[in-house]
Amino acid sequence: MFNEDWQQDLRERGVPLTDPYKMEELLTDDVEISKWVSQGLPPDELSLQNGILTTRASRFPLCIDPQEQAINWIKRKEEANNLRVCTLNDADFLKHLEMAIKYGFPFLFQDVDEYIDPVIDNVLEKNIKGQEGRQYVMLGDKEVDYDPNFRLYLNTKLPNPKYTPAHFGKSMVINFQVTLKGLEDQLLSVIVGYERKELEEQRERLIQETSQNKKLLKDLEDSLLRELSTSTGNMLDNVELVQTLEDTKTKAGDVAEKLKLAATTAIDIDRLRDLYRPAAKRGAILFFVLADMASVTTMYQYSLSSYLGVFGHSLKKSLPDAILKKRLKNIIDTLTTNVYTYACTGLFEVHKLLFSFQMTAKLEQAENRIKQDEIDFFIKGNTALEKSRRLKPHKWIPEQGWEDIIRLSETVETFISLPEDIERNGSVWKKWFDLDVPERAHIPSQFRKISSLHKLLLLRCFRVDRVYRAVSDWVTTTIGEKYVTPPAISFEAIFEQSTVNSPIVFILSPGSDPAGDLMKLADRIGYGSNRLKFLAMGQSQEKLAIQMLEAAVSRGQWLMLQNCHLLVRWLQDLEKVLAKVTRPHPDFRLWLTTAPTSQFPIGILQKSFKVVTEPPNGLKLNLRGTYLKIPSATLTNCPHEAFKPLVFVLAFFHAVVQERRKYGKVGWNI
To answer: Whose C-alpha in 92, 275, 581, 624 is 20 to 30 A from the C-alpha of 98?
Structure first.
């Protein structure tokens, strides 16, 4: 509306307008923007507009901030002003809020959920009263003196909170979720900082110098205006004013020259940095694919900080090459593989192909090889409530399938003649329809050479039962077979990727218990089982858990808290304790086990390394998982020729039993 309707209307009316017109240039200036960026606010257009809303809005801001960009910026911005930080679950938050209101300190409520305590409504609404030269606000049933310098911030990690209209009326709800372009720029800085460190350092110095020069130029302008406004009598007779004018003119000229040179240098630096943009773009797309998995289940939460760890690890592991194009290809391939491995470690088997499909679709869309309409049709089909007026020509076509065929012919230009072709060549289509694996056969008639995605769309209309297999084939032909072959769970790899600041969360499936594997890992790496502590969570175990955690942090122990879903409310206290840990022992690790639950704190999930303990899907993956647990020495030490075949038979039988278990009682026969 702002860019199209309003600006277009002004131009039609002949109103003078800066071209290009940017709202942020009207509401702020380059000096303030540079300061915000140095404090951690991303420099993209949307983030700057969010910064303006946060600082200029008449209502207090409520920031939707799943990637924690807003909260980090606010903390740095208000650090010098004695910022107070609390949550609405703290027992003494009213006491701290009262002190902040009274003395004019900024105050931040973090981890706000969809329920906001009504006790702070008067503060949110700025329901300030005056009496006898004093301003006060009612906090509960208490009058609290109100300092005009007081600022209130609310922050939530929920990616899609459902706030009521009352919340929107009381506060300024601002969406700080990172954008694709903004994240691409951030990842570009990470890549250039790793590949061309001197170039990124030069850019950062340039930004800092430009910020200082712009501030100096503004100070000179303000000083000159102040001198002119306070001057009395004839200006030409005021020697001091004339000298000030000369000095200001000289300094302003020097600063303007520096800014001009900095702008030219910035263009050259940006041109060199843009050579690495393809890898940054791939990284941004993959993060959004990861983040979208949270809509499947709340246990799939990923923070930007943990993703940056995977991104940095991929830069180190990718093969170096003197030719930039080959180096970028190595980075992109390694990053895609590592993100797939990282995601699959924390996904249930039933969702792994969904992740592969989502990743493939987003990568193809970025290259403009597929359209959003095609993806929408594949997911939804024909959602119209009214049936098509065109009658089904053959009885063997499913009712919903014919409706989908009509919708497909209207949506995708390639299939515009599909209904007529089916009517004319019914027997040919029927033959293809009756095949056991139609996804592997040629499509009848003129549609023989359609793309693999269009083949998927046709199967969605005719044979929904074969879509799962066809999706796997599409992913394989598009980005590679390894992206439909999830990696087997390796506790050594899990330990290698873990850090002292990131808990390892095991999301349990029925019958699984990772405690035994963890003890074996401790023995294999020489850690010692005596330094591995276990605690089964339950009623009255909260204090003991905190004591064991403090001991593990200081002594470098491994602590496993089992069945955390039984004390899910206490996990919020655990999150606060972990946030206060500043210098843990380098050997410390925290292992948590939990069943899937929607009440698990998002903060712990986002910064944790998630592992799903579930049998692999399919005989092949089951066999591979079994053999990965058998050391090679075990297979070679036994000289008997029947040993290896017997191991294979046993592993195969185990895989068959695992697969049959999916079908319950029907899976067993005598």
So the answer is: 581
Distance CA 499, CA 353 (A): 28
Residue 632 one-letter amino acid: S
Dihedral sign from CA coordinates of 357, 360, 364, 369: negative
Burial class (CB in 10 A: 0-12, 13-18, 19+), 323: exposed
Long-range CB pairs of 245-250, under 8 A, 24+ apart, other chains included? 248/220, 248/223, 248/224
The structure tokens 């609310």 sit at: 154
CA separation for the pair 662, 653 (Å, rounded): 15
Q: Using CA atoms, how far apart are residues 25 and 49, in angstroms rounded to an integer?
A: 10
Residue partners of 257: CB distance under 8 A and separation at least 6: none
- Block residue for tokens 């030719």: 323
Looking from the CA of 640 toward its CB, the CA atoms found within 13 Å total: 7
Backbone angles phi, psi at 439, to 5 degrees: -70, -20
Q: In what order do the strands lie in the sheet with 128-131?
A: 128-131, 134-139, 142-145
Sign of the CA dihedral with 215 first, then 218, 222, and 224 last: positive
φ, ψ for residue 587, nearest 5 deg: -90, -5
174, 394, 419, 506 from 448: Cα distances, Å: 50, 21, 16, 47
Reported as a pLDDT band with limits 50, 70 and 90, residue 332 is: very high
CB atoms within 10 A of CB 60: 21
Are 617 and 487 in contact by the 8 Å Cβ rule? The answer is: no
- Long-range contact pairs involving 250-253 (C-beta distance under 8 Å, separation at least 24): 251/216, 251/220, 252/217, 252/220, 252/221
3-state secondary structure 330-354: HHHHHHHHHHHHHHHHCCCHHHHHH
Q: Which helix (H) or strand (E) holds 146?
A: none
Strand order in the sheet with 609-613: 532-536, 558-562, 589-594, 504-508, 609-613
Task: Provide CB contacts within 8 A for 367, sequence distance 6+.
Answer: none
For 246-299, the pLDDT digits (tens) are 777 787 787 778 778 877 888 888 888 889 999 999 999 999 999 999 889 888
Question: At residue 243, what is the residue type?
Answer: Q
Whole-model pTM: value is 0.83
User: Tokens representing 434?
Assistant: 């009756």
